[in-house]
Amino acid sequence: MISLKLKAIAFFIDKKDKVVDVGCDHAYLDIYLAKNNLCKNIIASDINENALNNAKKNIARYNLTKKIKCILSDGINEINIKDINTVVIAGMGTKTIKHIISNKEKFKNIEKIIISSNNDHYLLRKFMNKNHYYLEDEKIVFDKNHYYVISKYKHGKQKLNNKELMFGKYKLENKNYYEYLFKENKKILEKIPFTKFKARKKIKKENKILKKYLNIK
Ligand SMILES: C[S@@+](CC[C@H](N)C(=O)[O-])C[C@H]1O[C@@H](n2cnc3c(N)ncnc32)[C@H](O)[C@@H]1O
């Protein structure tokens, strides 16, 4: 059974897309896309040989070897740009994602990037914004006791305000996520000593916005 996170990623993929799944690991996303004919073609890729071998085994188990190409690569460095127009980068930290996207030459003709970072969503949105990527949509899913943020980017200029950099575009459907962040921040605040004025101010600022989102007086 595919995870809700991978299903949310698949939601952003269209029939015409030529996809590379960077850091495919088990290749569950690629198997799901191929089995359900959800895109034009698929490359499963990973920097780690063991992970890619694992992907190959899973792909073979589902008789999808002819439909999914496997390539060993750091980001999309080894991928032929003619074979792809959509890049999925999921299950990695923002630092690695920034490293992958920094290959500007390779990314200049990519039409869509779908990202699910494990951390630092503020820094990631800021980086994408600064590098002229347009945040077209974002979905937040709760899966196995964890919130995942899945973002769809395209090339284009956009000025996100500070609130949007912190939490993405406000959506009523994300109330549970805002509530979770609010509570987590309260716990963090309890641990930060009063002398750490700057750190406390940052958390307080976040919670002021979250309070508004949650209609708390
Ligand atoms: C936790 S798995 C994520 C699997 C799947 N994408 C998901 O979200 O469920 C992270 C994978 O990213 C791969 N990875 C890390 N850095 C990478 C890079 N620079 N290029 C390609 N793959 C990378 C790792 O080898 C690992 O298999």
Q: What is the share of helical residues? A: 40-55%
Give the biggest beta sheet. 7 strands, mixed
Bound molecules: S-adenosylmethionine
Q: What is the helix tally?
A: 9
CATH class of the largest domain: Alpha Beta
SS-based class:
alpha/beta
Please compute the radius of gyration using only Cα atoms: 19 Å
Could you state the oligomeric state of the chains shown? single chain
What is the average per-residue confidence, as pLDDT, rounded to a whole number? 96
Number of strands: 7
Any idea how many domains? 2
CATH architecture label name of the largest domain? 3-Layer(aba) Sandwich
Description:
By secondary structure, the chain is α/β, with parallel strands linked by helices. The protein has 2 domains: 4-158, Vaccinia Virus protein VP39 (Rossmann fold); 175-213, no CATH class. The protein contains 9 helices and 7 strands, in the order αβαβαββααβαββααα. It has helices spanning 4-11, 28-35, 49-61, 94-101, 104-107, 121-130, 162-167, 175-191, 197-213; strands spanning 18-22, 41-46, 68-72, 86-92, 112-117, 133-143, 146-155. The chain has a 7-stranded mixed beta sheet with strand order 3-2-1-4-5-7-6, with helices on both faces. A hairpin with a 2-residue loop joins β6 (133-143) and β7 (146-155). The chain is elongated. The model has no long low-confidence stretch (mean pLDDT 96). The structure holds S-adenosylmethionine.
